[in-house]
Amino acid sequence: MKRRPIIAALCLTAGVMGVQMGEPRDAHAQSLVAALSDPLIEINLGFSGANLLLFGTADEGDVVVVVRGPLEDVVVRRKGRVGGIWINRKFVTFRGVPGYYAVSATTALAAIASPEVLAEHAIGAAHLVFEAAEDLTPGEMTAFHDALVRNMESEGLYRAEKGTIDVIGDTLFRTRIEFPAEAPAGAYRVDVHLFRDGELVESQMTPLFVAKSGIERAVFELANEQPALYGIIAIIIAVAGGWFAATVFRRI
Predict the structure, then answer these.
(1) Which of 17, 63, 115, 145 has the maximal Cβ count within 10 Å?
(2) 51-76 pLDDT, tens per residue?
């Protein structure tokens, strides 16, 4: 069993016991504390997804957990019918798009804060702001933005308000964060927010890393650091595989 989650859990439990047993609290003590069961997810050949536990303590209020994946460029295409055939008629490249996005909350976001407050803190997929490389009208921007969110949700990479946060007693909370097999490698951030009376009163950010390991990592690094060599090796393997298959079928 790994030591990191055990140590974090013990520290957190000790802090909670101190508050419940009536120890004096500092005037500037944190009203929100959270930790992950593991800050690293390793992707290997058999990776089929991961499930992490986030737990913590919070004073009175609503807790919202937002997980954002590494930023990337995403192309969204719109199809149109020409001569009875559906073809791609226009495309838009969005920059700075989270490769993964998930939201969990103690209750519905609409009951926690107003749309203006949620938009200010980019909470909820509808409030994510993407930069388009092309000039778009407001209507086109909305249409392509919504299409991007739908595509990411269909791939399981956007999980807006899919998760729930369990509250235990008056201060403890926990939630599970699900990562699909398609989750991109890179640096993630986990933001835990505490809302009270519709306003954000405190936040905590925890880094999370999704990294390839074993042969997956070697292939990934080769493809990104030496693309020319990677291409040559890929061609050699393809040619060798074709030659081997042709030889086998000739002998059958």
Answers:
(1) 63
(2) 899 999 998 899 999 999 999 999 99
| Domain regions of the chain by residue span | 30-212, 214-252
The tokens 């990562």 sit on which residue? 179
**Three-state secondary structure readout of the chain:** CCHHHHHHHHHHHHHHHHHHCCCCCCCCCCCEEEEECCCEEEECCCCCCEEEEEEEEECCCEEEEEEECCEEEEEEEEEEEECCEEEEEEEEEEEEEECCEEEEECCCHHHHCCHHHHHHCCCCHHHCCCEECCCCCHHHHHHHHHHHHHHHHHCCCEEEEEEECEEECCCEEEEEEEECCCCCCEEEEEEEEEEECCEEEEEEEEEEEEEECHHHHHHHHHHHHCHHHHHHHHHHHHHHHHHHHHHHHHHC
**What is the spatial distance between Cα 104 and Cα 157, in angstroms, rounded to a whole number?**
14
Task: Please report which confidence band the pLDDT of residue 240 belongs to, taking 50, 70 and 90 as the band edges.
Answer: low
Amino acid found at 61: G
b/e per residue, 169-186, with b = 16+ CB within 10 A? eebebebebbbeeebbbe
**Residue matched to tokens 């702001």:** 129
Residues 195, 159: Cα–Cα separation, whole Å = 21
Question: What is the rounded CA–CA span in Å between residue 191 and residue 64?
Answer: 8
| Region of poorest pLDDT, from 23-32, 40-49, 239-248 | 23-32
